[in-house]
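Re: [ENG-882] Designed sequences occasionally contain unexpected residues at chain ends

Forwarding the minimal case from QA. Structure tokens:
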């Protein structure tokens, strides 16, 4: 039932002086918060095309005061960069697909009250968030099953994130009522058909949220690649950019044929820090707007509604 009286519909509601003051203060506060959040991102973008001497002077940057593009030139001339992009895309797509295929059925199963031993299973999953076998046993396991230096080494050991599993289970518990399952069973619907025909179409929000979480984690990951990959031709983008940054640190004389002096090397090393952030973040910034709606809804999963 609408709480707005019929005679007030379509009419502009007049605000009191206190309401106008509150709205103005609230607007100013929100604008300041937005500036505080967005300026560091804007600063990185501007600093990536500005002379590092200007950046290091400590002045507030509002626009590129002196263009310096050698950092981007060095990044895009670095041939392993494009191989890193390709392998990062492979690891991200393959890893995210495995993650979603495992997490969603597991989360739905653990949300079902008729699953025998589900609390014990959930305890075992949660236990691994605080205690694990350690890196060496994990490396030995990966080595024994013969997946070292393959994409499987970066995807199978991290097939499930317990945190994402808990989020998925919570979503199913709060958004798929038991009455819906009971009605489907009465109509002769099997568990598999209920899951694929009813649950999944109603779960676009959680599917988008965990896909984004997993994809970002795979795209930004480099530690497991550093441990499990010995062939630098299979390195992901983050590891390639890390090596590029190390190569161009002060005092390093690699990059054969590079005869720039120490001062230019310092400038280049400083700008590479910002350029690498921009280059590695662009794919995620392109994808994020398409999932923003679902991501905002996913933040409220498990919240108290009333």
């Amino acid at each position: 039932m609408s709480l707005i009286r019929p005679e007030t519909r379509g009419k502009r509601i007049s605000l009191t002086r206190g309401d106008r003051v509150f709205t103005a203060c609230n607007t100013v506060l929100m604008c300041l918060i937005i500036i505080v959040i967005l300026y560091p991102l804007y600063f990185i973008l501007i600093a990536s095309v500005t002379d590092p001497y200007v950046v290091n002077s400590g002045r507030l940057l509002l626009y590129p005061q002196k263009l310096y593009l050698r950092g981007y030139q060095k990044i895009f001339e670095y041939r392993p960069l494009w191989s890193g992009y390709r392998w990062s895309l492979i690891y991200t797509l393959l890893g995210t697909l495995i993650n979603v295929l495992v997490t969603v059925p597991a989360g739905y199963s653990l949300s079902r009250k008729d699953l025998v031993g589900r609390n014990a299973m959930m305890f075992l999953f949660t236990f691994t968030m605080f205690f694990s076998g350690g890196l060496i046993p994990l490396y030995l396991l990966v080595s024994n099953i013969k997946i070292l230096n393959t994409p499987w080494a970066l995807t199978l050991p991290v097939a499930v994130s317990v945190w994402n599993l808990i989020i998925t289970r919570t979503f199913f518990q709060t958004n798929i009522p038991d009455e819906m399952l009971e009605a489907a069973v009465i109509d002769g619907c099997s568990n598999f058909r209920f899951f694929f025909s009813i649950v999944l179409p109603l779960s676009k929000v959680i599917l988008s949220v965990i896909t984004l979480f997993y994809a970002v984690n795979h795209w930004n990951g480099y530690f497991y690649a550093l441990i499990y990959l010995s062939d630098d031709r299979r390195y992901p983008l983050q590891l390639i950019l890390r090596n590029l940054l190390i190569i161009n640190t002060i005092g390093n004389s690699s990059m054969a044929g590079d005869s720039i002096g120490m001062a230019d090397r310092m400038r280049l090393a400083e700008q590479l820090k910002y350029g690498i952030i921009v280059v590695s973040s662009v794919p995620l910034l392109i994808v994020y707007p398409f999932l923003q709606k679902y991501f905002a809804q996913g933040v409220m999963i498990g919240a108290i509604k009333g």
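QA comment: On inspection the terminal residues look reasonable. The first helix runs from residue 17 to 47. Proposing we downgrade this to a documentation issue.
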